[in-house]
Automatic annotation (TrEMBL):
This is Tubulin-folding cofactor D C-terminal domain-containing protein. Residues 8-181 form the Tubulin-folding cofactor D C-terminal domain. PANTHER family: BETA-TUBULIN COFACTOR D (PTHR12658), TUBULIN-SPECIFIC CHAPERONE D (PTHR12658:SF0). It comes from Dictyocaulus viviparus. It holds the Pfam family TFCD_C. The lineage of its organism: Eukaryota, Metazoa, Ecdysozoa, Nematoda, Chromadorea. One of its GO terms (cellular component) is lateral plasma membrane. GO terms for biological process: adherens junction assembly; bicellular tight junction assembly; microtubule cytoskeleton organization; post-chaperonin tubulin folding pathway; tubulin complex assembly. InterPro entries: ARM-type_fold, TBCD, TBCD_C. SUPFAM superfamilies: ARM repeat. One of its GO terms (molecular function) is beta-tubulin binding.
Length: 297
């Protein structure tokens, strides 16, 4: 006997699987949804059944990676929003080139469609933060989120001028900080987390979000691992070169031997990092820049 109150939740979970990384899983998910929709005393408890019938018509379509765009119209329905966003992120952050390409295109197209709607953007980031938080200790989920997060954070659109207004974004930054501060984290995870924070350096420089992201990336210049130091320097350079910053910072980032491990080199790296920190975050912090600007008006 079907437990009525569980029907909708089962469908939501299957819909998440219908945008899985694996074509045969997507195919099976489509078959299951079609079967449930074909039974009247089950269909009556499924939200937006007619729309589901329109999308889940042919399970063979779901083997193809191009199916992700077919499913995104369901994002307008509250019942399927979170599960679908989570499923798409897991696929977009995968390792299969075809899957990641098409899932990423679907998500980025959706993110563009809500680019001017601050409430929709906040809702979207809430789902991202929730998936990130619940999946931090599950490698399959954590890795996918970390791989795709830089793309999400590099296109915040309406939030770029007022990133501090987003509680979801603040939560994501806190989670990234935990990743970077973890003593057992791998270099690849550090790389993804640093890339995500570098994406936020394009936000309003007078924001706390900018300060926090920049401070963490600058701190990563002192990481014990040479590969992480070098990557942090490269990411910071790429993020800052489009901004109005002291040219000395860019020169230091490119000229310093971040890979070196000799005592002399490490001492030089510490001195260089302190100079960069002073220029970006101490000598001319956001609130001071804002006060300088106001004083000239």
């Amino acid at each position: 006997m079907v437990v009525e109150e569980y029907v909708q939740r089962v469908v939501q979970s299957i819909i998440q699987q219908s945008v899985s990384k694996i074509g045969r899983i997507r195919e099976t998910a489509c078959k299951c949804i079609k079967m449930m929709l074909s039974i009247d005393n089950i269909r009556m408890y499924i939200a937006q059944a007619d729309e589901l019938s329109r999308i889940y018509r042919d399970e063979h379509d779901f083997i193809q990676d191009s199916v992700y765009l077919l499913v995104t119209p369901l994002l307008v329905y509250n019942e399927y929003y979170h599960d679908l966003i989570c499923g798409l992120i897991l696929s977009a952050g995968g390792v299969s080139e075809g899957t990641t390409l098409h899932a990423s295109q679907a998500l980025m197209a959706y993110q563009m469609s809500i680019s001017k709607d601050i409430m929709s953007m906040e809702r979207y980031l809430n789902s991202v933060a929730e998936l990130f938080d619940t999946g931090r200790k599950v490698p399959r989920i954590r890795n996918s989120v970390l791989r795709f997060l830089p793309q999400i954070l590099s296109k915040l659109y309406i939030l770029e001028q007022s990133p501090d207004s987003s509680k979801a974004l603040s939560r994501i930054i806190q989670l990234l900080t935990k990743v970077i501060n973890s003593k057992s984290i791998s270099p690849s995870h550090l790389k993804w987390a640093i890339t995500s924070l570098c994406s936020l350096i394009s936000c309003n420089r007078n924001s706390q979000t900018w300060c926090t992201a920049t401070e963490i990336v600058v701190r990563s210049l002192l990481n014990p691992l040479p590969i992480v130091r070098r990557f942090a320097a490269e990411g910071l350079y790429e993020s800052l070169c489009l901004l109005d910053v002291d040219e000395q910072v860019l020169i230091l980032l490119t000229d310093t031997a971040w890979n070196e491990t000799t005592p002399v080199a490490i001492s030089s790296i510490h001195e260089t990092t302190q100079i960069i920190k002073n220029i970006l975050l101490v000598d001319d912090p956001p609130n001071l820049r804002q006060n300088k600007l106001l004083s000239t008006l």
